[in-house]
Amino acid sequence: MHAPMLILLLSSIAAADAAGIGVTYGRRATSLPPPADVARFLARGTVLDRVRLLNADPLALRAFAGMGLAVDVTVPNALVPRVADSVAFARQWVRDSVAPHAAAGTNVSRILVGRDVISQANRTLLLCLVPAMQNLHAALLATSLHRRIKVSAAHSLGVLAVSTPPSAARFREGYDAAVVKPLLGFLRATGAPFMVNAYPFYGLTSDAELDFALFRVGAEGVTDAGTGLVYTNALDAQLDAVHSAMKRLGFGDVDVVVAETGWPWAGEDWEIGAGVDHAGDYNRNAIRHLGSGVGTPLMPNRTFEVSIFSLFDENLKPGPMSEHHFGLFHADMTPIYDAGILTAPEVIHS
């Protein structure tokens, strides 16, 4: 093995041990491998230690039994109102969708309620978020699973009304008091993290910003005039914006987890930065940085749990070409590019 490749592998493993590296396992695609094959590959061929499911598919949950990886499951947006309206329905959902798999050896670690609920223009769904989380927690208490399974939700940066500079960040007006503050109170009370989908790729407006987005050495730093702190990469700025908004509401002590981040390896001609080299650079550098213990300017000397989006390309998703090409692996589970997460011998032969 070449020395640089060995160093990359070892640094990735160190990051996995320190913070936890996961992957989002979406399945909106044709010709994907069976979940059982995927689970074996992730457990034996990568340094990943967790996986996020965008549903609670029993086939996938059974596949991860005994594999050791922590598994986050998701309540689909369509079910959130029913879970919020009825603790009995929440208990039934936990009994049917979670408890049997936990008993059979699947390491279910979180239930995530909906996807980007706060960012959607659906007031009914929005107001159901916290009650649904409370009912699911009550259901876990009833089945004695509350100590091993936490309830949270993943949010896009669309929850913020202002995100730059990070010190000025705040949640969207009207949502902050009605939804976000009760949500953060629930997370604090139950010991669950605030989970954010952070994508520097979507913030690009010109090629000149690529070095800052990709953690490149020599990237021109950006100074936050409110704190005097200098940011050398875009992801730190995004995470600190979330932290600042939480602190503004009195919840700066709630942990922050990167529920999703990633970079497309292909895209439309007009999509700035989409490309295989940039995808490799971003994901390797993000994993290394978040697991390094350096932290961010406002959250120094800590590691961050992170899940990369996504395991496979998803050709059935709507949107521009980039939406189809966030995958780390082809359907035969060979890497599209080196993201620094494979263990030998796959790394040696990549």
Automatic annotation (TrEMBL):
Keywords linked to the UniProt accession: Disulfide bond, Glycosidase, Hydrolase, Plant defense, Signal
Q: Which GO terms describe its biological process?
A: carbohydrate metabolic process; defense response
Q: Which InterPro entries match?
A: GH, Glyco_hydro_17, Glyco_hydro_17_plant
EC identifiers of the protein: 3.2.1.39
The reply to whether Hydrolase figures as a keyword in the UniProt entry is yes
Q: Name one GO molecular function term.
A: glucan endo-1,3-beta-D-glucosidase activity
Catalytic reaction annotation: Hydrolysis of (1->3)-beta-D-glucosidic linkages in (1->3)-beta-D-glucans
Span of the secretion signal? Answer: 1-18
Q: Which family does it belong to?
A: Belongs to the glycosyl hydrolase 17 family.
Task: Tell me the protein's name.
Answer: glucan endo-1,3-beta-D-glucosidase
Source species of the chain: Triticum aestivum (Wheat)
